[in-house]
Design a protein that fits this description.
This protein is an all-beta fold and 57 residues long. The termini are close together. The model has no long low-confidence stretch (mean pLDDT 88).
């Protein structure tokens, strides 16, 4: 199953695209799964969202 990261970066408050402030990819040592952590900020309404996406092997 493919994850569309652009679809996940829509602001829930105003519906406009959010800017990606930071992106970190790490690997969980216990399961071996990759984890994508992003900080999204809406430039219009100043909403900040910390998003965590778990990617399987």
């Amino acid at each position: 199953m493919a994850v569309d990261l652009e679809l996940l970066s829509i602001c829930p408050s105003c519906g406009r695209p959010m800017n990606e402030d930071s992106r970190i990819m790490r690997v969980e040592h216990l399961t071996g799964n990759r984890v994508l952590e992003r900080l999204l900020i809406c430039p219009h309404c100043k909403v900040k969202i910390r998003e965590v996406v778990y990617l399987t092997r």
